[in-house]
Amino acid sequence: MLELLMTTFIAGLLYVFIPGPATLAALSLSAGPGRMACATFLTCHLLGDLAWTILAISAIIGVSQAGPLLFDVLGLLCGAYLIWLGIKALRSQNAKASTIVDVPWKSGLIFGFTNPKAYPFALAMFTAVFARFEEAMTFQNAVPLVLAAFLGFCVATLGVVFWTGLPVTRRIFARHSRLITRAIGVVFIAAGAKSIGTSVSNIRLRA
After folding, report:
1. For residue range 106-117, what is the model confidence (pLDDT) as tens digits?
2. Helix 21-31, helix 104-114: angle, nearest 10
């Protein structure tokens, strides 16, 4: 169980650390109003992340309780979704946030709760993480898993506030935003391939 909680904590870190529109908005806030505005934005965004994660973990546990084969099928679908996101990032021509951040707390809530990709991304990431812990996917473990993920979110949020405010970070991002976006795409594809590989191996073992 400890290994599962640590893995979930790390997944929470990665969920926040992997750059996306919210990270780009955080960069712009740190460069403009400053780190306090960035922290306000990300704290409000965190509420949305928590809500989507609770739904994702509940769905994963529900599917796993329905049977191992269905859980593996979910792993295949989520792996394919991550690969699709990765390919999209590799083909991206820019890395600008799609929404202008005006009031940090309000924009943070909007980003967190209305992002249509938040739930499928959380579902895909945590499905890939939980693939090795099929036996532990019970509703009795749901609260510890959510708390472990949330702790990862909080630690990662502090990290994002710190590194986005560094002058060197702003300079590097301005010069290499396209390259960074494509590197993110490679990470997505690798995670998706791992999820698919684990599901295929499980299906073959049961065949």
Report:
1. 888 887 887 656
2. 170
